[in-house]
Amino acid sequence: MAYAFPIWEIPTVPVHGQNQRFPVRHIYCVGRNYAEHALEMGGNPDKEPPFFFTKPADAVVPVIPPAVGDVRYPQGTKDYQYEIELVVAIGTIGVKVAPQNALALVYGYAVGLDMTRRDLQGQAKKSGRPWDYGKSFAQSAPISTIHRAADIGHPDKGAIWLEVNGARKQTGDLAGMVWDVPHTLSFLSQYYDLLPGDLIFTGTPAGVGPVVAGDRLHGHVDGLSDLRIAISPAA
Ligand code: MN
Q1: Average pLDDT over residues 31-35
Q2: What structural domains does the chain harbor?
Q3: Partner of 33 at 20 to 30 A CA spacing, among 1, 11, 172, 208?
């Protein structure tokens, strides 16, 4: 049976040191997973169960270092913001997984940006509506190359930071996550079958803020490939 129109290319992310690409299926994102960021968002620093939102697979903008990815300023917003995050790439199916078994699902890790239309997210929060306009749109998930867990293990501490035009804007440590990777995956797997190709953005440290066209962003997590993007003018 033929397709009604030509099938599009599956979104992929390059794998560090391998002549392979990671095909992207779902993108899950954890909200407020560093205490100080929860506070700056008006939330509660106390430990609450994690919550999640999603982005479409084709939100990824794969960037192979040392290239600088091009990300267009999106339509519909006047407050486009960065959130630097550790990204977990799933390689093995997992359903209702216990925390002590969750790392076995992990294929690898990458540096990602959860780009956000903050004004639209804020309106949605106020009116009790879904976050999709704020979080789920084209090019909202730039990501650097994936490093395989087989090569680097499972990072649970180390610096995570973001610079905009050379100025440090966000600084944190992976050890500062409210819910660590095993518990995040375990929790998510109670509600969704985690599948090979899934990406999980694990939340951002404090210091989020806006960008404008022409800005250059440089994100880092210890042990992974840095992520660099430049914001191009709105269409
Ligand atoms: Mn985020």
Answers
A1: 90
A2: 12-232 (3.90.850.10)
A3: 11
